[in-house]
Amino acid sequence: MASPNPWDPAPAPNGAGLLLSHFVASGIVTQEMLNIPKKTAPCFMNFSKLQQITNMQAEIYQKNLEIELLKLAKDTADIVHPFFLAQKCQTLQSMNNHLEAVLKEKRSLRQRLLKPMCQENLPIEAVYHTKAFAKMDILVTETEELVENILKWRKQQNEVSSYIPKILAEENYLHKHDIIMPPLPFTSTVPIQTIIAK
């Protein structure tokens, strides 16, 4: 078999060409159908668009996450912001110091209250004395409970503050490795204990 001449403008048809010409001759396929330019496969044609859409979705997700974090920071600014925490701690510390001083001077305060003013002795029934002591004891108990709650709250705030850098680092890791997570519904109505538990 002779090799085809590379300089020949009309080389001999190959098997596929012979088969297509046979189909055209039999009427199964028309020449117009064969003349339609080949289209690129949809997966390759739309690949760049799909990549752009994916990139936009990742960017939208990141922006939504940043917006939610800013909203959360705004909603909890008076709770977790160091400036406000310092003010609250200072106020509570001054109240605590005052209450400690009152409790230390409890005996002298009782004696001063029992002494008549201006050397006048006003008789007060014993029932009123026992009620005042009972109220004072109730106030002392409530103050102690309040101090315990404040210490628990301070501990929880420290735990929440320690989790924030971990969450941000995790989000940066996901973004660097193009891992797309569905948007998380952050709301300010969720208790902090629930977020820590998750």
UniProtKB/TrEMBL annotation:
Q: Which InterPro entries match?
A: HAUS2, HAUS2_metazoa
Q: Name one GO biological process term.
A: spindle assembly
Gene Ontology terms, cellular component aspect?
A: centrosome; HAUS complex; mitotic spindle microtubule
Query: Any idea what this protein is called?
Result: HAUS augmin like complex subunit 2
